[in-house]
Specification:
This is HEAT repeat domain-containing protein. This protein has 44 helices and 6 strands. With 1016 residues, the protein is mainly alpha-helical. About 2% of the residues have low confidence.
Length: 1016
């Protein structure tokens, strides 16, 4: 059952884990909040008097600014997680104290009449702040995409809690009294707090490790940059749109409070007994949240279909209808049903539908001022709405008007609400145009959410006006909104924009077009874009024409020609379009075009791989695999991506073999390709789980973390990761052992390899951890572990020590990270024992280092005899050459593999000025003189190079003419010779080597320039 729901809701393991912690918080808090509300309202209305309700609301409106100020002060003094826990406990304490007082009244058969206003104010504080606390917690703990999936579930949990509370109040209130209903609220909040505390510790604390340590000075600077309330008030008075928004936000809750007063008054007169009144409140609460639960199933569709502006208009109309029914039937036997039903619906519409819609008003504002406008408007609306609703209700409390007259006053206010909603909707488009210049990157999504499907002819015509606006961003926005409408009626207007000067606008015009139902003549006009000078315009036009399936033959004619286009992207779109049109007669031509793209190489090959991947043309798999050896990085990346999309599992060993020397982009592409292999590649990846190379191991583990379900991650991956990580703690002994034996060069190389192994292991462990814990938490912890502040790092380690994700993996990762922070093991075993143990380790390089060291000890008596350099000798030597000091051990091994040891006699010429050179030399032993001719035709010495210095690198890569002469002096010289052709191939295949060479060559050029200046 859970698996079916998970698949249906498209939930990831991380989402499910978060739900198990968060759902009880919303469920228990939803019950507690509703029981609290039902209990204190029943007690206040019955024992103090519903006629005093407006006075209390006015007092509450006056208190709310002070409440906000005190909470803001508290927020500035406490870390985020502690603040939220403190607020929860504060509200729990308020309910607990009130519950004990009420139970004391009941058990002692006493009553204190003036306690109930205090009960009302304190309990309503909990209602307000608990809701805000829960939603802010959810938004803080869930990133945007996760929130879209989980928030409806959280709302459903709260709603079910409300239904549960209504049923509890209905039965408990009648049997045990209202005090028992109220006293249950803090008990259920205790259950919620157990999960709330766990959620904060697991998700919020790691996310705020760095924010909580932000310097006070920084907070003061940020406060100084904020605008005053007077600034926002002036700006709102100058903007009709903002005025309409604030008026709507104020008037809607005012109308609601008028209806709420009618509901409580009518219910109190019908049910004079307190137990019966509480039971009735509970029944209405249950019905209310049932309506909410049903409404939530269609709320998102309604928002997408109608848009926020139309939804607010519909809510205003429903308010109007509810008050009219209440006014007409108030003195009828159905009067209580009408007013109670209106109240139940109004509550849901205001707090669960209207509130999210109101937030879209402020998306129009610049992001730096958005929160200022939002909080100022919400403060004005909250206080103003309560005051207006309460003051109008006071007219009935004073006996100046009847209850049905109050209903007609509400009807009038609701009519005004409808007018403002309509007026604000029409102002929106004008405001959108004003804001678009600074917010063009995200404003179109806001416009679509606010206006909805744009089915209103008036709204559509108002958008058409802006197609001729001088600002390109405004026209782009108008075109995007027209495109969202998917209405072919716009086609004639868009065809008139064919000759637009801006290619960006022409592309937007094409994307806004809908060719469904277009005539042949209109298709011909659109096809004019196929000859546009901008290849992107031509490509978008091909995409568009392919959608005119009702004119298949004509579309085929236009697109077929573009297979001969001069730009690969257009050809790529043409091939895809012909396959989309299912034009079988053109498949042969498509094959020719694909072959041309793959064969041309470069950008053509990149688009060729993309075409093969998009169309799943597995027959080209072997050809794409051959492109992995292309010397251009972009082609290799595209080929790797394509192989993954084709799920060509036979290429997995080849892809993994490229990992050690791949740059970051290619390594990312290989990882993506392995993940795209899906279940087909699992067997091959599991076979590589114990690979000796740390980079390959890292990629394999990261890919498996993407592919395996959580239970397999824990059973098949975690233990292997932990054992590999624990083994690496022993490997740190090797550099210390080599140092103690006096092999400093080898020790330096071993230390570098251990560092590479360490980083790969840590990265792989984080990849697995990301799938076992919240992704944002893991990212925050990784960042905190690298923070400059020791306190932040220690706090991050403390979070990890709690067993984040998986306890075994977290502990092993913590040990590695502690080693990285400087607490690494220094070596307590005998060096010879460490070397013997290292010969059985998994990493090939560390085994080679140990073998080399042991062999050196055995032949120590022969160390004065002349011998040829071994492969490892070359690697050790290359590491000490500044030209290659930044390369990885694997890269050094590649260079050592093509380096040839040569010994030359004294006075031998290795380079001659004016002759072509294809070899780069690295001096192992001896000296070489560099010379050049002076202006008078004489030979002058530039300098003398010794061991670990290079020459000939500037001409070796391209075989150009040498500008200097290099001659052996002072006895024979031993060099490593790198042939230009082999070295050039390495640089092309592995860009990191080329980057290292570029840095070192720059230093060599500066050195030679210095020598020349000294000679001058």
């Amino acid at each position: 059952m859970q698996g079916t729901l998970t698949r249906w809701l498209q939930l990831r393991p991380e989402d499910v884990r978060k739900l198990w912690i968060m759902l009880p918080i919303f469920y228990f808090s939803g019950i507690a909040e509703s029981l609290n509300y039902t209990g204190f309202m029943a007690l206040f209305n019955q024992r103090f008097g519903v006629q005093y309700l407006p006075y209390i609301y006015i007092l509450e409106a006056a208190i709310m600014p002070l409440e906000g100020w005190l909470l803001a002060k508290l927020a500035n003094r406490l870390p985020k997680a502690r603040l939220m826990a403190t607020l929860y406990l504060l509200m729990l304490g308020v309910l607990l104290v009130n519950g004990l007082v009420l139970l004391g009244f009941k058990l002692g058969s006493v009553d204190f009449h003036y306690y109930y206003p205090l009960l009302f104010l304190s309990s309503n504080f909990v209602v307000r702040q608990l809701t805000l606390l829960l939603w802010s917690t959810a938004f803080d703990l869930c990133p945007t995409q996760q929130a879209k999936k989980l928030m409806p579930i959280f709302i459903a949990s709260t709603t079910i809690g409300g239904i549960t509370a209504g049923l509890i109040a209905h039965f408990i209130g009648r049997l045990f009294g209202t005090e028992a209903v109220y006293a249950l609220a803090p008990v259920l909040m205790v259950f919620g707090f157990l999960f709330f505390r766990k959620a904060l510790a697991r998700y919020l604390v790691p996310l705020t490790l760095k924010e909580d340590k932000r310097p006070k000075a920084e907070l003061l600077v940020s406060d100084e940059t904020q605008h005053s309330a007077a600034y926002y008030a002036k700006q709102m008075l100058r903007s009709p749109f903002l005025l309409s928004a604030v008026t709507l936000m104020t008037l809607m809750p005012a109308v609601y409070f008028m209806n709420e007063y009618q509901y409580f008054t009518a219910a109190e007169s019908r049910f004079p007994k307190e137990g019966d009144l509480t039971s009735f409140y509970g029944l209405i609460t249950a019905i209310q949240f049932m309506i909410c639960l049903l409404l939530q199933t269609v709320a998102n569709r309604l928002m997408n279909w109608l848009g926020a502006s139309n939804l607010l208009l519909v809510i205003a109309i429903l308010f109007l209808g509810g008050f009219s029914l209440t006014a007409l039937f108030l003195h009828h036997p159905l009067g209580l049903v009408m007013v109670s039903g209106s109240y139940a619906v109004f509550y849901i519409l205001l707090y669960y539908i209207a509130e999210p819609c109101f937030q879209l008003f402020f998306k129009m504002m610049p992001i730096s001022k958005r929160d200022g406008y939002r909080y100022f408007a919400q403060g004005v609306a909250a206080s103003g709405g309560i005051l207006i609703g309460s003051l109008v209700s006071l007219l009935h409390s004073f006996g100046l008007i009847r209850l049905d007259t109050l209903a007609w006053a509400g009807f009038t206010a609701a009519a005004l609400l409808v007018a403002i909603a309509w007026f604000g909707k029409n102002l929106y488009i004008k405001e959108l145009v004003k804001s678009v210049q600074s917010l063009h990157t995200d404003i179109s999504d806001v416009a679509a959410a606010f206006i909805g499907g744009m089915r209103s002819s008036k709204a559509l015509s108002s958008v058409l006006v802006y197609l001729k606006h001088p600002n390109d961003y405004v026209r782009e926005l108008a075109l995007e909104m027209i495109g969202n409408a998917k209405d072919s009626a716009f086609l004639p207007h868009l065809l008139g924009m064919v000759n637009e000067a801006s290619s960006r606008i022409r592309i937007a015009v094409l994307r806004a077009m809908n060719l469904q139902g277009a005539s042949v003549q209109e298709l011909v006009q659109v096809a004019a874009f196929l000859e546009d000078e901008d290849p992107e315009v031509r490509a978008v036009c091909v995409q568009l024409i392919s959608k005119a399936t009702h004119l298949k033959s004509q579309s085929y004619f236009f697109i077929r020609v573009k297979l001969l286009d001069t730009h690969p992207r257009v050809v790529h779109e043409g091939v895809k379009a012909l396959y989309l049109l299912e034009s079988e007669e053109s498949y042969a031509a498509c094959d020719e075009a694909i072959i041309k793209m793959l064969d041309n190489g470069g950008e053509w090959a990149v688009y060729g791989c993309q075409t093969v991947a998009d169309l799943q043309l597995v027959t080209y798999a072997d050809w794409v695999v051959s492109l992995l050896e292309d010397h251009r990085p972009a082609v290799k990346v595209a080929a790797a991506h394509c192989i993954g999309k084709l799920q060509h599992v036979q290429a997995i060993p080849l892809l993994l073999g490229m990992v050690p020397l791949a740059d970051q982009e290619l390594r990312k592409a290989i990882l993506g390709a392995l993940a795209d292999m899906g279940q087909a590649g699992l067997a091959a990846l599991l076979d590589q789980m114990n690979h000796a190379n740390p980079f390959i191991w890292n990629v394999v583990v990261s890919a498996l973390a993407e592919l395996l379900p959580e239970h397999q991650l824990r059973t098949e991956l975690v233990d292997r990761c932990v054992s590999r990580m624990l083994a690496s703690t022993q490997e740190r002994e090797l550099p210390a052992a080599l140092h103690s034996l006096g092999m400093s060069g080898l020790a330096e190389l071993a230390e570098q390899r251990c560092g590479e192994l360490h980083n790969a292991l840590v990265s792989g462990a984080w990849a697995v951890m990301t799938k076992l814990a919240d992704e944002r938490v893991v990212a925050s912890l990784r960042e905190a572990m690298l923070d400059e502040s020791e306190e932040v790092r220690e706090n991050a380690q403390e979070v990890l020590a709690e067993g984040l994700g998986d306890r075994k993996l977290a502990f092993a990762l913590l040990e590695l990270l502690k080693m990285d922070s400087g607490n690494e093991q220094k070596g307590h075993e005998a060096p010879a024992d460490v070397l013997q143990a290292a010969r059985s380790w998994s990493d090939g390089w560390l085994k080679d280092f140990a073998d080399y060291a042991l062999s050196s000890l055995e032949r120590a008596h022969m160390k004065n005899d002349r011998k040829f350099l071994t492969m490892l000798d070359k690697v050790i030597f290359l590491k000490q050459v500044s030209l290659f000091s930044d390369l990885s051990v694997d890269e050094l091994g590649l260079i050592a593999g093509i380096a040839k040891e040569e010994v030359h006699e004294d006075l031998t010429y290795l380079l001659r000025r004016g002759e072509r050179n294809s070899t780069m030399y690295l001096i192992v032993e001896g000296h070489v003189e560099l010379s050049n001719e002076t202006g008078e035709g004489e030979t002058g010495t530039i300098g003398v190079l010794g061991p670990k210095q290079a020459f000939g690198e500037t001409t070796a890569l391209d075989g150009s003419v040498s500008s200097i002469t290099a001659q052996v002096i002072f006895d024979e010289v031993c060099v490593l010779a790198l042939q230009g052709e082999s070295f050039s191939r390495l640089v092309r295949l592995y860009p990191e080597i080329g980057i290292g060479l570029l840095h070192a060559s720059s230093a060599r050029v500066r050195l030679l320039e210095s020598m020349l200046l000294k000679m001058a």
